Amino acid sequence: MGLFDPFRRKQPEPEPASHSGYYSLHDGLGEDPAYDEWDARLDEVDRRLSGEHDSGGTYRLQREPRGAERWWQRAYWRDRRKRWWAGRIIAAALALFVLLVAWLAITAPLNKSLQPIAPPMVTLLAADGTPIARNGAVTDEPVVVSDLPPHVVEAFMAIEDRRFYDHWGVDPRGVARAVFMGVGGGSTITQQLAKFTFLTPEQTLTRKAREMLIAFWLESWLTKNEILARYLSNAYFGDNVYGLRAASMHFFYRRPENLTVSQAAMLAGLVQAPSRFNPVKHYDRAERRRLMVVDAMVAAGYLSEAEAQRLRPPALDVRLKSDLPTGTYFADWALPEARERTSGGYARQTLTTTLDSRLQSIARVVTGRPELRGAQVALVAMRPNGEVVAMIGGTDYGKSTFNRATQAKRQPGSTFKLFVYLAALRAGWDPDDRIANTAIEEGSYRPKNSRERYSESLTLREAFAQSSNVAAVRLFGEVGSEAVIETARDLGVTSALAEGDPSLALGTSTMSLLELTAAYAGVAANRYPVDPHAFAREEPNWWDRLWDGSDTLSGRVHSDMEDMLRHAINQGTGRAAMLPGPNFGKTGTTQDNRDALFVGYANDLVVGVWIGNDDNSPLDGISGGGLPAQIWKDFMRQAGGASGAPRANPTERADPGGPVEPQDVPELEDIPFEDGSRLRFEDGEMIYSTDVEGVDLDLRVGEDGMRVDSQRFEEVRRRAEEATRERIEREEERMRERYEAERQRLEEQER
């Protein structure tokens, strides 16, 4: 049976001869009319026989006339001719196409083609107005085709789509030329707009089909000039520049309405391969491409040969340069929120963050320690309300953009004991209540204290200060994992916490340093949870506070918790972080010294410090009470307790352009530097303001020479001497600790 046999109409069987297959046994009976009637009936049976056998070898009777069949029955469709099927398939395809175009017209966001295809440039400023990072594409306002000189439009049409005004989104000639001659990609300007506005750059037949469908849809809802304007306003020209207006300003520093023929031809040539033909890096390639565009304009009749001969290579005028980095650890973290705050459109925007450039500079200095010996370090400093004022995500952003303050999930070690002891206080325990500090010798989990130091019992205050592991696990068992996890959740911890696991008391769960520091900020502010943020927020009024979902600790619980945090610094494992004034904090060291942390607060600053290796290998002699505590103390001392009032909502200004360009500062007389220093001019004097050892110092240069405030200079000298003396004392203390440790080791060996 052939492939299409089921679709062919059956030809009627030839009518058999009279009495076919029938032989009279009684010739003498004559021509009785009863035999004729019998023969007619047999002929009817023969006509109804299909002539085909079923699986059982018997004849199958021919189907009933078509009028008796229904459309859901198989027999209704079986004997249709191929022509009948082909006509209906084509009609169905056309109907489906119309339905798809109508569906796109109703549901697809047509205004998406009016939006930039890449996020526009956003410049982030520190709280004092110092630019810190610039990220995003260089964009500008859309162009209007009627405002452009004819040669600008003709240059793009000549090289990209000469028949733009003659086709309906898809050019059959262009497709045929691309298929049979291998010239060009066959995509019209409308298809290119559909591709980079609605689709991904994948090279597949499915994507090409969708591209054509969207092109038809665009042509049915937009005018040709609207399509061309949207194409020119979104095309990529290289150097992170999108759109004709931004490209003309970037490469020639002139508006597109004022482009010459030669300049327009060079820009039109960039669209095919922006990086390869970038005139800033490869001017010779861009010039050869420009000549191809000019030849195409001549071939299309837009230019005469004489006009083309008179054209000269255009000179570049690139002025818009930026020395700002595209990202920092803080900027990368703040950028998603910045995008949410910016309004849609092509305009560049500037946002002021909560980052304190002075504190960020201090953080960079105190974390640049040779004692790290190749380990990574992270630091987060925030106000108790969650405003992040400094962030270090690693030792070198240039080598690794991975933010160890916000992205890394590491064990918090004993800093997690905050939640265990706070849960106990909320359950009615008192800092003076005692808990066993003997070794745990039963059960499957048997934690040990550092250096295996045990005693009969300790008060909760002493156990927290000495960071007793066995006491924390016993307290965890008394309070219950549910209460501890609930306390952590209340303080804003969202990372996974294993319920019923006693090792959770020692910080075996993982979380980010930012998450952990925010939890301590909740205790510092006695208002939780604290949401770390990079942009200032308005302080809520009493009504908003009533309904914002925040909570507070009771006066007794908060006072007792701060008492234990203070005891941990002044008399416990965090003595290396002790400050002259009130200070609160906790050390943390994970198993085999893989992570070392110190988190605490003082002087309206909550700071978390982490040290570790990216491969999770053990640290070389670094514990939470050592280098992290010292970094924390140095940061707090140099910060000097300076606290800035919450700023108003971020302002949006024109794009600064660069760190020392006039747009960055209100006036030319006030110029900020990256390290937080400033240079200004007042009454004919040049004043250089900087910070030395936490003292603001002004260096004045005028007609009378150089002057400096003697009292402030003396304060700087005094603080420098104090810093030197403290470093000497710290080194002596370190030597005494090493001597004591060595003496104890020798005594243990002698035993």
UniProtKB/TrEMBL annotation:
Segments of skewed composition (Basic and acidic residues): 1-13
Keywords noted in UniProt: Carboxypeptidase, Glycosyltransferase, Hydrolase, Membrane, Multifunctional enzyme, Protease, Transferase, Transmembrane, Transmembrane helix
Domain (Glycosyl transferase family) ranges: 132-297
Reaction equation(s) it catalyzes: [GlcNAc-(1->4)-Mur2Ac(oyl-L-Ala-gamma-D-Glu-L-Lys-D-Ala-D-Ala)](n)-di-trans,octa-cis-undecaprenyl diphosphate + beta-D-GlcNAc-(1->4)-Mur2Ac(oyl-L-Ala-gamma-D-Glu-L-Lys-D-Ala-D-Ala)-di-trans,octa-cis-undecaprenyl diphosphate = [GlcNAc-(1->4)-Mur2Ac(oyl-L-Ala-gamma-D-Glu-L-Lys-D-Ala-D-Ala)](n+1)-di-trans,octa-cis-undecaprenyl diphosphate + di-trans,octa-cis-undecaprenyl diphosphate + H(+)
Transmembrane segments: 85-106
Enzyme Commission number(s) from the entry: 2.4.99.28
Chain intervals for the UniProt region annotation (Disordered): 1-28, 640-668, 716-751
Family matches, as Pfam families: Transgly, Transpeptidase
All residue ranges annotated as the Penicillin-binding protein transpeptidase domain in the record: 379-635
Keyword Hydrolase: yes
Pathway entry: Cell wall biogenesis; peptidoglycan biosynthesis
SUPFAM superfamilies: beta-lactamase/transpeptidase-like (SSF56601), Lysozyme-like (SSF53955)
Family: In the N-terminal section; belongs to the glycosyltransferase 51 family.
Protein name stated in the entry: peptidoglycan glycosyltransferase
Organism: Qipengyuania benthica
